[in-house]
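just leaving the lab so this will be short. what follows is a protein written twice so to speak, once as letters and once as structure tokens for the fold. can you read through it and tell me how you think this chain folds. anything you notice is useful, everything is just below:
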Amino acid sequence: QPLLLSLPKVLLQPAENTLRIEQTSLPSTSHFIGKSYLGAEALLTPHFKQRQLLKSTLPIGIIIATSVLASLSLALWLRRRQEQLYGWHVLTCITGSLYCALPFSSFPLSSLWLDALLLLLFLWFAMSAAWLGLCLAPKPQPQIWRNTSAAVFAGTVAILLASVLCTPQAFRHALPWAYMAIIALGAYTTLTVFWRQYLTRWDSSRFWMLAAVMCICLVALHDGALLLSLIGPEDGFWLVYGAPPPIVVFTSILLRQ
């Protein structure tokens, strides 16, 4: 989150002044700190307000809206539990909102367990969205269900075991590749369904489904590149902006049904 700090004039000396600026992150292993700018407050304040809107106000608004939508979907699913569509929609909304909200929280978790929890939430968010797309497919796909379910179960167990057996440094070293594997699994599931069934029965709703899934894949690739230090940390993670499109698209499809 962006910060704007003012230096009291009483601390400045008429002669030359030396400033010592130290930055740290919580947890200390997550070194995603952007650049620091030093200048007149009148010049920095507009830039700070813009960053605060994009990096704090807008994500919090997205989290609140997604949480409200999850509550409404849960109430609907409790009345129609026989329909899997609503159950997977609830799980998609809940895991997506929790994943986006966790970095803004102050849970007393170690860096290792925080990384593990975020990875688990990302895994279940990506796959619940993919399974929701499977439920909307014209024909059942039992083989894809079995393959992806086994992969999610194995991934969940692997993440839990790694969080117990690995050091924080080793876990963080493997974290980008785990994210990439989850992105690949979600993309495989979604694109396979579209290739086998949706291309023969193409309409506007399926176009928006594919567009939403590709949107979240792109922002997830950006976050993976950030974890791999292929790009700078100034813009931070983008998944909070990529989560709403698939949720909104799937919600509109469910409402029409």
Notes: The chain has a mean pLDDT of 80. DSSP finds eight helices and no strands in the chain. The helical segments are 41-79, 84-101, 111-135, 142-165, 168-196, 204-227, 239-242, 244-256. The longest helix spans residues 41-79.
